[in-house]
Amino acid sequence: MNGGIIGKRNTSIKGVWTPNDVVCDTNNIAKRPVVFDTCETVAGWNSNKSGLSVSLNNSTFLHGAGAINLIKTATSYLDAYYVYRYVDLNLLGKIVGVNVFVSSGKYANFTRFSVCLMDAYSITNKKWELYHDFASGFTSGGWAKLELPVSSFTTGTGTPSPSTTRMLALGFAVSANSVTLGAGDLVVDDLYYRRA
Fold first, then answer.
1. 142: which residues sit within 8 A by CB, 6+ positions away?
2. For the chain, how far is it from start to end, CA to CA, in angstroms?
3. Residue 34: pLDDT above 80?
4. Structural domains in the chain?
5. Is 15 left (phi over 0), alpha (psi -120 to 50) or beta?
6. Is 21 strand, coil or helix?
């Protein structure tokens, strides 16, 4: 079998990647994650819709001193995207992941959580797009590690070139327009990649 398994995270240890977070290949060579956003500041996060915002969460997080709340006050649509911009990230042959927390009172309202990669610094100027929908990925409240090889993402637009990724968007959909999300309902921590 090529690759290993991911063990259950020790959530009592903050700010440390524990042995359970490391995947090894068949030669026991660690495929350590490279965290490209620790989610300890809201700088760089933007939304493409009104009624959506982000804030820092200093009480619900896995590592460091905080994580990012994704907040939805709008009641006129189901889908939302939060965009984090970065420069020249080569994701060719990599696995991309994010840690996501959903509150016990809201997990049943989610129909999708998505990760999207693009080549441009603007959604309207993109030449290519790759995405993956983790459909109804939450069966209870709490933390979940969502990750997938970039090679398994679906092409949305153009001819993808993951070696020149310029933008990553985290998206979600809820079951009804009226569903709102406050601080602590949907939280993300540690955007990362690792060797496939």
1. 101, 102, 104
2. 13
3. yes
4. 33-195 (2.60.120.260)
5. left
6. helix
- Residue 142 CA to residue 94 CA, distance in Å, equals 26
Q: What is the three-class DSSP state of 182?
A: coil
pTM listed for this prediction: 0.82
- How far apart (Å, rounded) are the C-alpha atoms in residues 55 and 184? 10
3-class secondary structure, 44:
coil
Query: At 137, which amino acid appears?
Result: G
- The mean pLDDT value for 170-191 works out to 94
Task: Return the C-alpha torsion angle 54, 9, 153, 34, nearest 10.
Answer: 80
25 confidence band (pLDDT: 50, 70, 90) = low
Q: What is the pLDDT of residues 106-131, one digit of tens each?
A: 988 988 899 999 988 766 778 888 99
Residue 67: which region, alpha, beta or left (left: phi > 0; alpha: psi -120 to 50)? beta
CA 23 to chain centre: 19
What count of other Cβ atoms lies within 10 Å of the Cβ of residue 6?
A: 13
